[in-house]
Amino acid sequence: MKRTIIMMLDSFGVGAAGDAAAFGDTGSDTFGHIAQACANGEANDGREGPLKLPNLARLGLGHAAMESTGAFAAGFDDKVELIGAYGHAQELSTGKDTPSGHWEMAGVPVLFDWGYFSDLTESFPSALTDKILARAGLSGFLGNCHASGTTILEQLGEEHMRSGLPIFYTSADSVFQIACHEQSFGLDNLYRLCEIAREELAPYNIGRVIARPFDGTGPADFARTGNRRDYSLTPPAKTVLDKLSDAGGEVVSVGKIADIYAHCGITKKVKANGLEALFDATLEQVKLAGDRTIVFTNFVDFDSHYGHRRDVAGYARALEYFDSRLPELLAILGKEDLLLLTADHGCDPTWPGTDHTREHVPVLAYGAGLAVGSLGLRQSFADMGQSIASYFGLEPMEYGESFIAGM
Ligand SMILES: O=P(O)(O)O[C@H]1O[C@H](CO)[C@@H](O)[C@H]1O
Ligand SMILES: [Mn+2]
Ligand SMILES: [Mn+2]
User: Which residue ranges traverse the bilayer (predicted)?
Assistant: First the structure.
């Protein structure tokens, strides 16, 4: 039975990419800087001491990162008994955003430039916002700037609840984000507003509109809910997910995968919120999965709860939790199954600002007869998509070099 399980640790980079300078990210290193902070005793909130990821280390995380940066991260070394193939990959896509990383990983790099709202304030053209407001019957909006999604709630959440005006904000990514209170504004109203924005953004080539619902009564307890929804553009070509589902296989999305691929190539969608629930759902779907199935999970908390929030201890805690659950997954894999652990970009929690960082991602591949050892530097995330295509005996993808032989 052939199945591929993809664990996408959102934002878990393993060191600055060769082109990081162009992004202002020279020296960024999500994994390395977390490990260093832990070793320094600077990440003891809810956890203690050096970063302990024994299962990821056996899958080759420490080695992959060492090949990326030139040195083992603090607390990692070559004494571990490896069980998998490990590599690190650079990104061909022009952006360091979530859709680019995911699409490229599935064999379709984003070689065109997204549109961006690069002005830090007065970010959106009034020609755009006027149209959105008119269609939604709204008299105005708040925000209109680059912001951290939690900080802007502290600043504008109350005014939003008083005035009923939505909060529009963006970031270094190609995004148009709308934050509204779930009860006072209404979740359906927020989703409708996002659909309008998605249509009106057509000329701007913006990768995603993101609905950011929140609840709570004031700045002290405002919290974003699990009802986030991403309205993504469609990938510019068929990904390996499309190819497998076109060929009669199953592609199971766990978490926000379906949204990220604009629902293309997905045959089953499973919702779950939070690391624990996402891991539980993944295990359950792997148990249910038959031959020629991809089970694909995005673990968004690494990015949205810890990376963007610059919460080093939280990121370390989440990694250690994730690691502690890996044996449950390894125990239910069949001999032929392929497990891939990777990331879509970096989001170094020690880095200035709150944006992603241009980094190599880990490529940890286990099972499917793969020899234990190094896969080296992969020229594109698309090597993973190409490998999956070859594993399932699908037509080759246009991009990427396979590291796995067809079986
Ligand atoms: O600060 P929050 O709202 O989490 O935003 C983050 O999430 C968005 C999507 O990845 C990006 O725009 C990034 O800035
Ligand atoms: Mn991401
Ligand atoms: Mn992000």
Answer: none
